[in-house]
Amino acid sequence: MANFTYQGRLYYNPIELTMAFIGGTWKMPILLALRKGAVRYGDLRKTIPHINDKMLYSQLRDLEKKGMIQRKVYQTKPPRVDYMLTELGKKSIKLIDKINNFGEYLMEVEGIE
Amino acid sequence: MANFTYQGRLYYNPIELTMAFIGGTWKMPILLALRKGAVRYGDLRKTIPHINDKMLYSQLRDLEKKGMIQRKVYQTKPPRVDYMLTELGKKSIKLIDKINNFGEYLMEVEGIE
DNA sequence: GCTTTTACATACTTATTTGTATGTAAAGTA
DNA sequence: TACTTTACATACAAATAAGTATGTAAAAGC
């Protein structure tokens, strides 16, 4: 497995690429929040605990750039914007569920509740 | 799902806990390198591309502290130290494979080779 | 006419992660 | 006797990620 670049960054293996798509503190919570269908910006804010505007908007932009989510703007005042998973985004959900499940297993093993 | 702490850090959800165990640039490559059995320190260095001593040793310490790997020291000169997966570490391999597979899928989709 | 709402956007600071350079012990090798 | 090997360890710097504070437009509500 050789190195490769994607969107101007160098990667050493497929794992790093996966993490570019779903890694960091907020991407997986955002993707999970969209699993049932379109959600507006303000509702994402309310649904995802502890997230702030800068993180939400910058991660939404990045997920859009990577083709994981779609943005839909309604020309109303005040504005309304919906976000939804693309096909690629939907494919990531199964993996994110597994990552979440492993975390729950760890909580059990470590006696965390 | 409320917040919780583990080893002195605060977590908001199980995903973050999983990433504490297998996340970062080097933990998954290290764990995969141990999947076939015990490997010595020096061989890990040679097997994992681009890793440096500081990253290897600090991630090994962290993985050990989290119960993912075991360390076995042979009292020889120069020293020999083997690392191997614990049961918990073995359980992580299936998940890491899935993360790797998703990355390979992304490479296909994005036309990276 | 002043405040609120919505969905951002930017500047700046802080925290976390990663990388570089260098050092160590103690025996074996040239 | 000087150099190499092994498995670390530490100080420090650079890079990346995350968080804080503040601002914007334009219409609707009080």
UniProtKB/TrEMBL annotation, chains A, B:
Residues 13-111 form the HTH hxlR-type domain. Keywords: DNA-binding, Transcription, Transcription regulation. GO terms for molecular function: DNA binding. Pfam families: HxlR. It comes from the Bacteria. This is HxlR family transcriptional regulator. It comes from Chitinophaga ginsengisoli.
